[in-house]
Amino acid sequence: MITNALNSATSLISQAQQKASSAAQTIASLPVQEQEVGGSKDIGSAELFKPVLSLKEAELETSAGVKIIKAHEKMLGSILDIHA
Predict the structure, then answer these.
(1) What pTM did the predictor assign?
(2) Are 61 and 68 in contact (CB under 8 A)?
(3) 6 and 62 in contact (C-beta within 8 Å)?
(4) Own/partner pairs for 7-11, CB < 8 Å, 24+ apart?
(5) CA atoms within 13 A on the CB side of 72
């Protein structure tokens, strides 16, 4: 059970990292707005909404993974204190 929690947390953080990377790549590949230097067209906020939301999801998933790891460490420390 202890190992499963740690594996789940690291898997969650890894998936969040991939999600953030994909969203950042999507944002970076959007065209430059018309009023900016070298801009060719206007981009709508709808084009940015989904990748920005994915970045926020990745942030929250990473935070959850870190909390799981911290809880795991605390539980492991308590178990060691009990057996000592």
Answers:
(1) 0.75
(2) no
(3) no
(4) 8/68, 9/65, 9/66, 9/68, 9/69, 9/72, 10/65, 10/69
(5) 16
What pLDDT does residue 43 have?
Answer: 65
What's the rounded Cα separation, in Å, for the pair 50 and 22?
Answer: 11
Residue 1 has pLDDT above 60, yes or no: no
Q: Is residue 38 helix, strand or coil?
A: coil
Copy the structure tokens of residue 42.
């206007």
- Look at residues 5, 24, 20 and name the one whose alpha carbon lies nearest to residue 66: 5
Q: Which is nearest to 15 in space by CA: 54, 49, 48?
A: 54
Which residues have CB under 8 Å from 23's CB, separation 6+? 51, 52, 54, 55, 58
**Number of helical H runs and strand E runs in the chain:** 2, 0
**pLDDT digit string, tens, across residues 16-55:** 999 999 999 998 888 766 665 555 566 667 788 899 999 9
